[in-house]
């Protein structure tokens, strides 16, 4: 089977002009070319998804891994999840700190009896694995947090590449990264990682560490991005996959789900691949930062106007 791949780096309402869009496009294309070449070499979907998530987590343009936003207390807490469609097995970490690539912890937990760990459990796992201590803080994120503490936060200075135009900076972060892949054996995998929405209450849990934001079966795989609470309320990723499993096409499943989301005034985006190799993406937000590779065609969604599109 021809491998298929789609990745995303967030959703929101602003790309800070053409220069911002070009910078994001360059990052997305560099990563998708790297990961697709891995799939072509025969790598399985799980390895490709993990590789893609690592690269996106390491790119400071995106709010995951290095460059994650700070929470209300000035700390960085990240979450990540991985799901293999072949085994229909979900794993993840919630509010983990001091690690470069949270997706690696989620990957290890795929083969564990306890597959979702929160802050303290994830920290203990890091000690068991001898994971190097890493500080994902950047000067830009620290500066944003300090300005917000001084009640002098200017939304135009925010470094989250796709951000909301809402007034409160506590509602500004929508950054999440995600990868969905179909390998040569027809196996589907989805991975998602985030630094959270920024300035949030301590202990808040994002959608990406739930099937609401990251879900896969043998039939389809979905990764979501946007306002986490909206994604949770719609149980978006699982809803789309279940509809495909029940017999709807991927594009019809996406269209129904996003029509319902608009009626409920939700704000998010999603990327998906099904077992036939169809690729789809959708958004209720103004922009979805995503790029795809079909084997014959590489493109992005930065200028999409419709709610749902498919290949």
Structural class: alpha+beta
CATH architecture annotation name: 4-Layer Sandwich
What about the largest sheet? 8 strands, mixed
At the fourth CATH level, what is the homologous superfamily? (Glycosyl)asparaginase
Polypeptide structure, described:
The chain has eight helices and 13 strands. The chain has one domain: Glutamine Phosphoribosylpyrophosphate, subunit 1, domain 1. It is of the alpha+beta class and 311 residues long. The two termini are 16 Å apart. 32% of the residues lie in helices and 24% in strands. The longest helix has 24 residues, at 17-40. It has an eight-stranded mixed beta sheet with strand order 4-3-2-6-5-1-11-12. It has a five-stranded antiparallel beta sheet with strand order 7-8-9-10-13.
Task: Spell out the key features of this protein.
13 strands; about 30% helix; Glutamine Phosphoribosylpyrophosphate, subunit 1, domain 1; globular; five-stranded antiparallel sheet; about 25% strand; eight-stranded mixed sheet; about 300 residues; alpha+beta; 8 helices
């Amino acid at each position: 089977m021809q491998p298929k791949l789609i990745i995303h780096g967030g959703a929101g309402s602003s790309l800070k002009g053409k220069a911002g869009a070009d910078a994001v496009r360059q990052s997305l294309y560099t990563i998708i070319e790297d990961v697709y070449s891995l799939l072509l070499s025969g790598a399985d979907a799980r390895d490709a998804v993990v590789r893609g998530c690592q690269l996106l987590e390491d790119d400071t343009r995106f709010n995951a891994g290095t460059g994650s936003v700070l929470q209300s207390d000035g700390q960085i807490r990240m979450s990540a999840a991985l799901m293999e469609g072949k085994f229909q097995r979900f794993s993840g970490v919630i509010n983990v700190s001091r690690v470069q690539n949270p997706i690696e912890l989620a990957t290890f937990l795929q083969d564990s009896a306890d597959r979702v760990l929160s802050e303290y459990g994830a920290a203990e796992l890091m000690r068991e694995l001898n994971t190097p201590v890493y500080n994902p803080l950047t000067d830009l994120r620290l500066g944003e947090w300090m300005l917000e503490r001084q009640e002098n936060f200017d939304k135009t200075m925010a470094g989250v590449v796709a951000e909301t135009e809402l007034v409160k900076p506590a509602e500004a972060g929508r950054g999440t990264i995600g990868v969905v892949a179909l390998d040569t054996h027809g196996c589907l995998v989805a991975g998602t990682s985030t630094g959270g929405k920024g300035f949030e209450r301590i202990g808040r849990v994002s959608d990406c560490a739930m099937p609401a934001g990251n879900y896969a079966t043998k039939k389809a795989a979905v990764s979501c991005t946007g306002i986490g609470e909206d994604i949770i309320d719609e149980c978006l990723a699982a809803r789309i996959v279940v509809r495909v499993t029940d017999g709807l096409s991927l594009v019809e499943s996406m269209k129904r789900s996003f029509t319902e989301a608009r009626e409920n005034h939700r704000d998010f985006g999603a990327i998906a691949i099904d077992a036939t190799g169809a690729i789809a993406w959708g958004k209720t937000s103004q922009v979805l930062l995503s790029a795809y590779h079909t084997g014959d065609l590489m493109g992005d969604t930065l200028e999409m106007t419709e709610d749902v599109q498919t290949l």
